[in-house]
Amino acid sequence: MEPLGTTTVLLILCISCLLLSAIWKSRTWRKGKLPPGPTPLPIIGNALQVKTNYLDQTLCKLSEKYGPVFTLYLGVERVVILHGYEAIKEALIDRAEEFAARGKLHIGDIARKGQGIIFSNGERWKQLRRFALTTLRNFGMGKKSIEERIQDEAQYLLEKLQDTKGRKLLSTSSTLVGFVSCLSRTTLRQLSNSFPSFMSFIPGPHQRIVPNTMKTNDFILEEAKEHRATLDPSSPRDFIDCFYIKMDQEEHNGASEFTIENLIISTFDLFIAGTETTSTTLKFGLLILQKYPEIEEKVQEEIDRVVGRSRRPCMADRAQMPYTDAVIHEIQRFISLVPLSVPHAVVRDTPFRQYVIPKGTTIYPVLTSVLHDSKEFPNPKEFDPRHFLNEDGTFRKSDYFMPFSAGKRICAGEGLARMELFLFLTSILQNFKLKALVDPKEIDITPLMSSSTVIPRPYRLCVVPR
């Protein structure tokens, strides 16, 4: 057994040396041009410097040492971090085309395989995103028709809350009525994103990603089959119908991106982007307002003054409700739902500031560094609606408000999400008072990092009719 053990140790040392050599060569590529960063170790890269539970905070500390543009190694993969408003604006907005590619994200790679809208690139991404935006607009995104549908959904939620009669408790361990959570989120999933080569061998909930994704895909496929069987091309009912019509129009185009695979993944992308993010933000909002009942009271006073109790809130009311608008913006700013955005990439060797970012490098813009900028938002770690209010009480806009990212990859459903958040939150607070079940001072609103997003800490809530 001794010779075998020695051979194994020597083999590991040789592999480690080869990997270290490869990493060192990549670090010195075009010597002096690659952004600086901490020295990586063989195989594990910068794992010892990165705390995945508080990744955005870790990157903030590293930026203090290495500057707003620096290099990290997640395992053996090189990534470049952008920290702060100026660096992120320069990359995603001023040079949007160069940074528009989607970067590698292990969970996205194994679940989507480059298909759909969120994780695709090149012509596929352009065509599917353009089609999705056009279809959503045709179905009323940003118009009165979609507003009325959201109002109807809000009314349905109110009826369910009314049935609780102030007794039933809502817990974030399960989603609020009307919202669906599709994927479990754990620290292991975050590790799987950051160090995929190692985590693929470690058992845990992250191993259920592919099976769960397949189940979701099967569900969407069955729904799509029903749509196909009852399709009327002259009267499309929804996104799936429109996609099928486009597929039929391009049936003789062998290079068409409108395939059944892209239909399934694109539908899944829109579902996740349009429900999960909004529901998580709303759950955060209800938790935060329990901690600050005085803020809840001011919102309700504004609702009573502008909307009253006899009609449903509508988007036209928002312009007359600066405080409520500021509270919603502050919820999004404070939680920083997707701290590192969804990764970008450069498709060619890209000069950026005094560096050159090599082709194919994944780019992580740390959105938290913008949303929590202390110069733009005094005391950024504190929840304070005054961050979005002028001294005279009017609403204050800010270029630093980037919860939906920025540039060409900005969330396609931003307008819809804004509408949903305003109508759902105002409808709930118009009709109910939130009743905290513990002392508000004991409520912890610090977000928990999970996968590529944050989630609120589990809590219970009771609503009382006003």
From TrEMBL:
<comment type="similarity">
    <text>Belongs to the cytochrome P450 family.</text>
</comment>
<dbReference type="Pfam" id="PF00067">
    <property type="entry name" value="p450"/>
</dbReference>
<keyword id="KW-0408">Iron</keyword>
<dbReference type="InterPro" id="IPR050182">
    <property type="entry name" value="Cytochrome_P450_fam2"/>
</dbReference>
<feature type="transmembrane region" description="Helical">
    <location>
        <begin position="6"/>
        <end position="24"/>
    </location>
</feature>
<keyword id="KW-0472">Membrane</keyword>
<keyword id="KW-0256">Endoplasmic reticulum</keyword>
<protein>
    <recommendedName>
        <fullName>unspecific monooxygenase</fullName>
        <ecNumber>1.14.14.1</ecNumber>
    </recommendedName>
</protein>
<keyword id="KW-0492">Microsome</keyword>
<dbReference type="InterPro" id="IPR017972">
    <property type="entry name" value="Cyt_P450_CS"/>
</dbReference>
<dbReference type="InterPro" id="IPR001128">
    <property type="entry name" value="Cyt_P450"/>
</dbReference>
<keyword id="KW-0479">Metal-binding</keyword>
<keyword id="KW-1133">Transmembrane helix</keyword>
<keyword id="KW-0349">Heme</keyword>
<keyword id="KW-0560">Oxidoreductase</keyword>
<keyword id="KW-0812">Transmembrane</keyword>
<keyword id="KW-0503">Monooxygenase</keyword>
<dbReference type="InterPro" id="IPR036396">
    <property type="entry name" value="Cyt_P450_sf"/>
</dbReference>
<dbReference type="InterPro" id="IPR002401">
    <property type="entry name" value="Cyt_P450_E_grp-I"/>
</dbReference>
